[in-house]
Structure formats: C-alpha cells, structure tokens
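note to self — DONT lose this again. spent like an hour looking for the file last time. sequence + predicted structure for the chain T wanted, 235 res
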Amino acid sequence: MNQSHGRIRAITLDVGGTLIQPWPSVGHVYARVAAEFGLPGLPPQWLNDQFKCAWAARGAFDYTRPAWQRLVNRTFAGVIQQPVAPECFDRIYQQFVQAESWQTFADVVPTLKHLRDRRIRLGVISNWDERLEPLLERLDLARWFEAIVVSHQLNCVKPAPAIFRHAAERLDCDPEEILHVGDSAEDDVAGARAAGFQAARIDRSDPGSSKETVSDLSALVGLLSPQRGEGRGEG
C-alpha cells in the first residue's frame, strides 16, 4: 500500500468482510435452519445467490430486526413458495449470534496483537444490530477493542460522519489521528474521510495492493511510524 498517512494513534475496523465472514456461508446457515423447519435440501449456493440479489436491492437499511426479516423473506422468495415462518426466521436471526456461524480471518488476531503491542488504540465501527457485541465476545475478539461503536446504539449508520465522530470521542483521539479500515468504498472509506479520519479499504479478493487498498490486515503495521529504536540499529 503506497498511500501516505499522517500520524496514527488509533485504528478502527469494520467487522463483516474485514474481521469475520459467515461460515461456511449465509446460504449454508439458511439451508441448515430451513431443514429444521420442514424445508430440507435447499441448495446453499442458490440461497447465497438469492441473498446477494436481496442485499443489492435492499435500499435504505437500518439493521433492525424487521429489516433483517424482510431481507430473509426476499431471499427465500426466490426458492420457496410460502413466506418464511416466524419461528424459522427467529432461529436464523439467533444463529448469527453464534460463533459457529462465523469465521475470523487468519490475519486478524496476529495483527491486533501487533497493533496493541505498538500501543495503537483499537476500535470497531460497524453497521450492525444488538447481536454484534455478544458475537464479538463469543469469538474472543471484543477484548482487543477499547471502543465498539455499533449503528443500532446511535440510530446512525455508516457512511454518516456522526458514527465516526462518536468513535473518535470514545477513543479520545482527534479524527485525523485515526485510520479506519473496512471493505466498503462508500460506507468505510468515504464515510471515514468525511469525518476527518484517514482511511483504507481492505479487498481480500485482490492478492495485491494498490494506492488505497490492502489485501491483508497485516499491511497496516507498515503504516505506523517507527517507535524509538526501530529500524536504526538501536537497542
């Protein structure tokens, strides 16, 4: 990553696509729960494709439980004839607060440890609902962060600058001293910059890096100013 950054005292991170991903996939989780409610054999890839279409067409999304229920219903509408039973949706909703439904990317914990060892303050800024904090606890990720700022707490979603400014206050840092990293060019990069943050986009599908993107969180370490004694042969 060749983009120049100013002094970085804190790094905030998006969650989905940045720290974790659904496991084995959204479609696998939906299919497994649907089978428990009398709908066996639904192809996970089919459900994944339907979910992607429903997500792309979601419009304004406030990350509330009713919003997720509408999205789940749209996903299944292309696969089954009847609406998803409320009990089935409830199970799906609760399944995504379980650690078994998510995978932490391999670079996350080593990078967080290195950053904390360098005394970089760490936070989360995420468009999510009330399930995020317990999920991060179950994944043993919450302990790394001084501030976990979630859209449902503020009734404000990225890319609105207010959610970033709230995180800056929680971290007791000026916005220009914070680097925000996420996988959305609009929600994460544009939103962070509008709030005065530094910003970088993570694109895990790209094995290389460019001026404004990284393919792995470990690249963030290279953006930090050397501490005293680093890189100069000093003890």
